[in-house]
Amino acid sequence: MRLLFFLTLILAGTCSYAQQQLRIKVVNEANVPLLATVIVKGSGKGAVSDSTGFAMLYLSSNGRYTLTTSSVGYQEKETRITVPLSAHGLVIVLEGAEEELEEVIVQSTRTSRTILNTPTRVETIELEEIDEKTNMRPANVAMILHESTGIQVQQTSATTGNANIRIQGLDGRYTQLLKDGFANFGNFSSGLSVLEIPPLDLKQVEIIKGPASTLFGGGAIAGVVNFISKTPKLTPEYSFILNQSNIGQSNVGAFVSGRGKKAGFTVLGLYNHQNPYDVDKDDFTEVPISDEFTIHPKLFLYPGEHTTIAIGNSFTRGSRTGGDIVVIREKADQDHQYFERNKTLRNISTFDLESRLGENKRVVAKQSFSIFDRSIDLPAYRFSGVDHTAFTDISYVAGTGKQVFVLGANLLINKFKEKLNPTARDIKTTTAGVYAQYTRDLNEHVKVEAGLRLDDVNYTNRVYSNNEYFVLPRISVLFNYNEKWSSRIGAGMGYKTPTLFTQETETLQYRQVLQLDNVRSEKSYGGTADINFKTEIGENLSFSLNHMFFYTLINDPLVLTGNTGWNYSFANASDPVVSAGFETNARIIFRENFKLFLGYTLTDAKGKYRTLNQYLPLVPRTKLNSALIYEREGKLKLGLEGYFTGRQYLSDGSQTVPFSVFGFMAEKIFNKFSLYINFENFTDTRQSRYKAVASGLHNNPTFDEIWTHTEGFVVNGGIKVKL
């Protein structure tokens, strides 16, 4: 009897002091699982629910606790519990929030923090804005990025409309493009990447401006753009779009998703057709004839409550032909023979695994393999090559409350092979790296994120081989002064390995561009600093302001030069490229129906190696963007946009004129479908109004650099169906 008494006491003591495991499921009002953060109030403990809505929380002992649960698009909720619970687990139901901006969860920093709680400055484009921009251009993401402050979508071909991205005035090769964190859009494939990423399956776009090399490696000097796809939910989604424009563009697209307990899926399908369009009747196309088809199925598996596996394959085939419209219409003669044809095939296979190991710990493994095959045909010239990229990344993430630690390693192998040139410009680049990032809340007002990356890079071609090592530190600090004022300061280093595929060589279609020889990587130092202010003016008016300064210095910039043999070659310049300036963004909301957005960018981008005029070509010094939106949720959307672009220098040192562009969009929303119409550039601003884009003989034309719209006024409209 005495022995039984002591055993009872020991068992009671063990139960009192043993760690308590709490199983939580977070859902919305429709019982759909949510990705959410659950924090134990007054402590640093917390957990993040997985794709099935489950989270495991470990408590030190029995007692009373208050849990704070938050998720993007939902109201934050406090739940008071007493442990041990009478039930096996806890279900937390979140209600939808009217204002989603403050609850955006950032994925690119891998910490699962809300945007207001992240030290690194991240801009997000949310689903609502993506949906609006899809009305304007369903074929690709160019319109989504073009109208963002500090970002320029630079057209590189007068006849085919090929384009590149510039952030803060820097060449497109300094921006890292990602899709769901996968790096498959660099080097040879970068020239058409913006035009081959459809927006229909996107739920969010995250933009990090300035150095971001800790997690993303080389090429993230100017910044990172991460396109994040939708994931399946228990409630199936069926979305369709039909679009037609006055310049002959037709788009048919569909996105379908659904899931059960053990598996889910998403499927994107899109077909785009464009007729040739010659607005100024000079016999040269402003918009090429094109056909493009994309199919992207993705399978999601849930083998357990804490594991998610995603397997996908994206296939895109496209053809774009511009030039003499007489040739395109198959009526070529001795005076009309010029054309430029691009044919591409892009296939990306991805594997993504996320597994939770216990309290606030998870392992994420990513693997992708991509093929990009492209040919360029002109009269008496052909360029053809294939680019293979293999990407592997494994990371370990621990912590969710006051501190988060990320440790990872990745391997990137890129191999380009030219098909036709007997003196082939083949090149192989191998990058192996390890990285660590630590995020900590020092107190209620100061949060710090520091990272370090070590990379070993080897690039080899038939004439040259080099091996380099990089140590890349980065730090960001968030200061929350009070409810109205906050600021972020960040700085870091970066690099870009040598590449033949730049904005300049793209405009040359790689003709007479020699193989890389005796060159080294470009190295950068940069930083950003911003100040944020937000306030409520009465019950119906809110105002917010963000002002950011930026600075980037690139040493050993890779510069294209011509030699006496009429060939082009690359060499590292002795003086740097420097880009500095600021961005200002303001937002005014009245009664949640009227929204006014204003943005201003001043960019001072110079190549110090340049003689006479040091300003980088095709970089406007000033740019102003504005948008006035009226919305009655679920019924009507109206939008008026205006953009002013200041003077730009061309390569010959001359200056362009400043110009303005205006657009108007309307969408009427019914129960399960909506009708929309968009008047883009209704002031008909185009380059040919100032000077002829094409000059010389039709058989051997020359084209000016593109510094504004070429197609002029465009009207498009269509129908969207959501079931």
Features:
723 residues, mainly beta, 3 domains, 22-stranded antiparallel beta barrel, 4-stranded antiparallel beta sheet, 6 helices, disordered N terminus
Please tell me about this protein's structure.
This protein is mainly β and 723 residues long. It has 3 domains: 2-97, Immunoglobulin-like, CATH 2.60.40; 115-226, Beta Complex (Ferric Hydroxamate Uptake Protein, Chain A, domain 1), CATH 2.170.130; 227-722, TonB-dependent receptor, beta-barrel domain (Maltoporin, Chain A, Beta Barrel). It has 6 helices and 39 strands. The chain has a 22-stranded antiparallel beta barrel. A 4-stranded antiparallel beta sheet has the order 3-2-5-6, with no helix packed on it. A hairpin with a 4-residue loop joins strand 25 (465-480) and strand 26. The protein starts with a helix and ends with a strand. Residues 1-18 and 98-102 have low confidence and may be disordered.
Report Rg: 27 Å
Total domain units: 3
Provide the low-confidence segments as ranges.
1-18, 98-102
Mind telling me which CATH architecture of the largest domain this is? Beta Barrel
Portion of residues within helices: under 10%
Strand runs, count: 39
Mean pLDDT: 89
Outline: globular
Q: How is the CATH topology of the largest domain named? A: Maltoporin, Chain A
